[in-house]
Amino acid sequence: MATTTLPTGPIEPDATPAAGTAASSRFGGLRRITTAVREAHGVPKFMLWTGAVITALFVITAVFAPLIAPYSFDTYRAGGTNFPKQGSPDGDHWFGTTVQSLDVLSRTIYGARTALEVMVLAVIFSLILGVLLGLVSGYFGGWLDRILVLVMDALFAFPYLLLAIVAGFVFSGVSGGGVVTAALSITVVYIPQYYRVVRASALSAREATFVEAARAMGAKPSVVIRKYLFGNVIQSVPVITTMNAADAIGTLAGLGFLGLGIQPTEAAEWGYDLERAIDDVNAGMWWTTLYPGLAMVIAILGFTLLGEGLNDVLNPTMRRRRLGKVLLPDHTRRRTVTASALPEAPGATEGEAVK
């Protein structure tokens, strides 16, 4: 009888018999996401694509703000003449001007750029830290897992805006304020969310057969986490990312409204503009409040619809499939039959027919 000898030491990742499984684990999550998006229908499809369109318009406006905006965010004069103070919308200033003689349209467009910068940095920072800590905690467990769970639960118990304010005070003393400081303040809020979701997925995935096989054949923990666990837990992250992106815009506006966000001389920010426009509303100057607030609502709505659409599409428990559209093999397809269509048992009377 032929015998098979297993290697006694650690093996290279590409040399494992489970290399095909590793490759599928790396790309399987992405394939499942793209397949689910293509097969979306009904209300989830409408929310997904509506949110995607609004989000794309927001991103395009933010990226090309210098080309779209008629002036810079801090410009108050042109051609040697100051802009009118609190001027109403007209042909020269479509959205009017503020009490500081700033063009509302330009500040609204540049506010999208600031929101995008802070949002991207906050999501990237929290994504890297949250996913990394969740993978390590879920895979190794033990005392490290207990400490991280305690810390993340403590952070999660704080109201998110209060936590962002406290973090803003801490980071402002280190970096001196600005976009990076605002992003770091918001990052602290979202790390526990990524950590909890990724840790739960890692706890489940580490008991899978292919992970146990990789460990038994000598794969290092870093290889197992990178090649086997990461691809199976990352499919839960896109939904959280889009929802956090929407929430980050609101959190940044809240910090700016309280005067704890980005300084007005560094960038345009919707929350700061809304705070400065409170007195204008009482004086009947509605334009300084309407356009920044409307831009913020539309941006948050776009990311929210995108996140909810992704959640409905990717979450199997949220899908509603009609039985008539489900394709099943012939030997597993259910058929509805009547009692008259079934054969009677030999010697059975009419009342004893099989139902």
UniProtKB/TrEMBL annotation:
Residues 112-307 form the ABC transmembrane type-1 domain. It is found in: Cell membrane. Pfam families: BPD_transp_1 (PF00528). Residues 1-22 are annotated as: Disordered. PANTHER family: D,D-DIPEPTIDE TRANSPORT SYSTEM PERMEASE PROTEIN DDPC-RELATED, OLIGOPEPTIDE TRANSPORT SYSTEM PERMEASE PROTEIN APPC. Belongs to the binding-protein-dependent transport system permease family. This is ABC transporter permease. It comes from Actinacidiphila epipremni.
